[in-house]
Amino acid sequence: MKQITQLGATVEEAISIALQQLNTTRNEVEVEVLQEAKKGFFGFGARQAEVRITVKEVESENTDQDKSDDVHHSITEKISVVQEDIQEQSSLSDTIEDPSVFVEEQEDPIESARKYIEDIARDMGIEDLTIVTQKQGKNILFKLESEKAALLIGKRGATLNALQQLAQLVVNKTAKSFLMVKLDVEDYRERRQKALEVLAERMADKAIHTQKKVAFEPMPSYERKVIHNALANRVDIETYSEGTEPNRYLVIEPIR
After folding, report:
1. Name one GO biological process term (predicted).
2. What are the sequence ranges of the domains in the chain?
């Protein structure tokens, strides 16, 4: 049984941080509020909210995380295949005078990506996936829903990020102009952003308290950007990235 206790400025913040650490969703855990937050009087008597989060037991012998690791590896391989396919198409277009005469009527790129995601989900053993697409200008949002949301998200969002990269490639493989693709599952992106913002402040305070650099674990560029933005107005620290992708990480350094 997987269980942790977590503090937070509010009960909801504590729950959000715990869900991120457990890499799961609200409907897959049991929440016990150990204490409510208290503001105190002039700073005296203040206390944080504390919750105990317990992951519900799953009967399957293979955990969703084990499956997620296998799926993430499979998706990474698919990304390489699509990239090679795009490069081959580009090379072919460069060798013919009028490539448009060889192009047959193609399926809508957004619909192609939606079907691609559904096919991968079936390979993952997910049969109840529903996808809602929203398009605003050059931005495409695929909202995924399933009882196996944690499997779609993967460890710290790794599977979801890989699926998003794959969908981005599939969409822009045939799109007439570049489109920016985003995948989300049960508002994971918003919850992840809030958790990162809370973590950013705590790590910045740690850097100031210890007067030493604090380094995060490797994360995608857009997550590093969340932390950069969250700390942009602080004048006592500076943030920068080090390393090379996919192991690039963010560093907080106190300003002496």
Report:
1. peptidoglycan biosynthetic process
2. 1-57, 64-186, 187-256
Q: Which residues, in sequence order, are bridge partners of residue 133?
A: 142
Q: Taking each helix axis from N to C terminus, what angle separates 158-174 and 64-95, rounded to the nearest 10 degrees?
A: 20
Return the C-alpha torsion angle 219, 225, 226, 232, nearest 10: 130
Tens of pLDDT along 93-102? 455 455 454 4
Give the C-alpha separation, 25 to 242, whole Å: 31
Q: DSSP alpha helices (H): ranges in 96-180?
A: 109-123, 149-153, 158-174
At 49, list the tokens: 């909210």
Long-range CB contact pairs, 178-183, < 8 A, 24+:
178/138, 179/109, 179/110, 179/138, 179/139, 179/140, 180/138, 180/139, 180/140, 181/113, 181/140, 181/142, 182/139, 182/140, 182/141, 182/142, 183/117, 183/141, 183/142, 183/144
Residue type at position 251: V
Cα dist from 176 to 89, 114, 138, 171, whole Å: 14, 18, 11, 10
Whether pTM exceeds 0.70: no
pLDDT for 65-119, tens place per residue?
555 556 666 776 767 666 666 666 555 545 545 545 444 456 788 999 999 899 9
What is the residue-wise DSSP string for 203-233?
HHHHHHHHTS-EEPPP--HHHHHHHHHHTTT
Beta bridge partners of 139: 136, 180
Q: Which fold has domain 187-256?
A: Ribosomal Protein S8; Chain: A, domain 1 (3.30.1370)
Beta strands 180-185; 139-145: pairing state: parallel
CATH code at 64-186: 3.30.300.20
